[in-house]
Design brief:
heterodimer, A: alpha/beta, Rossmann fold, Alpha-Beta Plaits, 2 domains, six-stranded mixed beta sheet, 29% strand, B: mainly alpha, 14 helices, globular
């Protein structure tokens, strides 16, 4: 049984189509990345998974249950961290952590103390004095100190400094090692790349790409910067070469190459006597930019 | 939806009491004790039955008094104290309504409901907890008031009637606020809706009471505040208006749950209208900012009919240059 299964999930806000037949399948024990730009539908999807919003079409299953009808029973088994944590100004951070734990139905006090320590959070301060990052930490500590089997994290590290980002990544690896499932929505690609087994890219309410990183890299290009003894000629005619820039009378070249054509291009370059060659591996960033860079249509679809 | 929709209400009640541990006891005690002061000052100013009868005569001949406080039903100290307390029905109603909205829509607008909603808390737990807290606080106001009044030597039946009429006014408006909290995405709009409703209910009672001899008296019967005055504490207590109030509470509470069940968390039943994409030409001074931020207060009735658009929007469309030209 998958931890999360969405099938043609559709959601309208009034006439605006927010989710258009979203399919998503997260297996138990995996860390799944859910990436997309602002307003693409990440949080809408997650709120449907949490039973906070009603779906307008399609099916959604979370831990084998219906997220709307079985919300209360499911919520005892999952933990959620929103991207923008809003707390009660006159309660202390520690009170909020305990409240969320009790409402979920249990918290491990040893883990609570451990995560407070790791995230360097002072639980005695009133929530009104917390910065954005500290409010995130309150929700993160409450989530990780729980004994949830599924973690739904919606841009959980917004506002965290790099040190805390590293702590967060370590925490995710640990829960994964315990066999728990994580759905991580993010637009920080380095975070997703570091943590996730598989990803789905959502754009304008539609899943545009799904797969492991290895699978997605077939769609990506390697950037090459090369210096040769002889001027390179005919580079731009080679199949799979993109955006070539040739400088210094042809002895320096920069270009991107499709992963499948790399071998042929390197053989070709060797003919000109390679002096130095820098190849930058494809990143999710580029994939992402390619998906969002090309002509973003105005507005979402209308009913 | 199933029985789980109530889960967590108990914990939320404790949370709300914790959040309100100062303000809630303050308004309960202040609202409960105010009529005690009225009673003792009336007893001091008009110590004899004859003086009070003369005072009642002046009140009855003054329509402004009838509009403001409503009719007086007797010349005893208690009846006059109850008459003088009639505005407190509005205070209790207002405190109750605002407390309900603060624990429902305000939390929801801020995003705290989302955090709670992701825990094992049922869909209706928040509304239920808010209503239970406020209904109990209103009952505390009523019983404390009754006990206090009895303690000052006033008749028990009248004291209980006055106290419970306060509680019932609070309940009606707590339930009405429960409905308002479902309608709009913004807590400010929900608040102005209930304040508008309260103003309307007061106006209906005032017009009905002033025009009673002219056949306008039926207007009072459209007003829950009017019902509670017709309990006639310390005169010849009528208990049946409580049935009207409880009926209104039941209808409004049921409506609030119905609306709550069919909406998304964070959303209102009434969708928000989009704002202008760009600032108007006159929007360039601190004064213009103050006006823009406050103008909603001048059109407080507007949210009740959002689809028709506000009169301000209409006038902006008709006269796009109605800001002083000298500014630009």
């Amino acid at each position: 049984m998958p931890a999360i299964e969405l099938n043609k999930l559709t959601k309208y806000y009034g006439k605006h189509l927010a989710l258009n037949q979203v399919d998503l399948r997260v297996e138990q024990g995996e860390v799944y990345g859910f990436i997309g730009p602002n307003g693409a539908g990440k949080s809408t999807t997650i709120r449907i998974l949490l039973g906070l919003l009603r779906k307008d079409g399609g099916q959604a299953r979370v831990l084998g249950g219906d997220p709307w009808r079985d919300a209360v029973t499911l919520h005892r088994r999952l933990a959620y961290v929103p991207g923008d944590v809003s707390l009660w100004p006159n309660l202390s951070g520690g009170e909020v952590i305990d409240l969320l734990g009790r409402l979920r139905g249990g918290m491990n006090p040893k883990r609570r103390a451990e995560y407070l320590e790791r995230f360097a959070l002072d639980p005695t301060k009133k929530c009104r004095t917390y910065s954005k990052g500290n409010r995130q930490k309150v929700a993160l500590v409450a989530a990780f100190a729980s004994d949830a089997e599924l973690f739904i994290l919606d841009e959980p590290t917004s506002g965290l400094d790099p040190l805390m980002e590293a702590v967060f990544q370590q925490c995710v690896r640990e829960v994964k090692a315990e066999g728990k499932t994580v759905l991580l929505s993010s637009h920080i690609l380095a975070e997703v790349e570091a943590l996730c087994d598989r990803v789905s890219i959502i754009r304008q309410g539609r899943i545009v790409e799904t797969g492991t990183f290895a699978e997605l890299r077939h769609l990506t290009r390697t950037s090459i910067s090369v210096e040769t003894a002889l001027p390179v000629a005919g580079l731009s005619e080679l199949p799979g070469v993109h955006d070539p820039v040739v400088e210094d009378g042809g002895t320096r070249a920069r270009f991107a190459v499709d992963a499948g054509e790399l071998d042929r291009v390197v053989r070709f370059l060797a003919l000109f006597g390679v002096r130095s060659l820098v190849s930058t591996p494809p990143t999710l960033e580029e994939l992402f930019m390619r998906h969002y860079g090309e002509g973003i249509e105005a507005g979402g679809e209308r009913r | 939806m199933n029985k789980d929709i109530w889960t967590g209400a108990g914990s939320l009640i404790r949370l709300f009491l914790r959040k309100d541990r100062l303000i809630l006891p303050v308004w309960v005690i202040v609202l409960a004790l105010l009529p005690l002061g009225y009673g003792s000052s009336i007893a001091e100013l008009y110590p004899t039955e004859e003086m009070r009868a003369r005072f009642v005569g002046t009140i009855a001949s003054n329509p402004a008094m009838a509009a403001f406080y409503g009719p007086v039903f007797g010349s005893s100290v208690g009846a006059l104290a109850a008459w003088r307390s009639s505005l407190n029905l509005i205070f209790v109603a207002l405190a109750s309504a605002l407390t309900v909205i603060r624990h429902t829509r305000t939390d929801e607008e801020a995003g705290r409901r989302e955090l709670l909603g992701a825990t094992a808390v049922g869909h209706h737990a928040g509304l239920t907890a808010a209503l239970i807290v406020v209904f109990s606080a209103d009952l505390a106001v009523g019983l404390l008031m009754a006990a206090g009044l009895i303690g000052t030597g006033l008749p028990a039946a009248g004291s209980l009637a006055l106290g419970l009429s306060m509680a019932a006014a609070g309940w009606v408006f707590a339930a009405a606020a429960g409905v308002a909290a479902q309608l709009s995405e913004g807590a400010g709009t929900a608040r102005s809706m209930t304040v508008t409703a309260l103003g309307l209910v007061f106006a209906l009672r005032a017009v009905g009471d002033v025009g009673e001899s002219g056949g306008m008296g039926w207007l009072t019967w459209l007003s829950p505040i009017g019902w509670m005055q017709r309990v006639r504490p310390y005169a010849d207590e009528h208990w049946w208006p409580f049935a009207l109030a409880l009926g209104a509470v039941a209808v409004l509470t049921a409506a609030a749950y119905r609306l709550s069940a069919r909406r998304d968390i964070g959303a209102g039943i009434v969708p928000p209208r989009p704002g202008p994409a760009a600032a108007g030409p006159g929007f360039r001074s601190p004064l213009a900012l103050a006006w823009r931020l406050q103008r909603g207060a001048f059109t407080a009735g507007r949210p009740a009919s959002p689809r028709s658009g506000s009169p301000w929007a209409a006038s902006r469309k008709a006269r796009p240059t109605d800001w002083p030209k000298a500014r630009s």
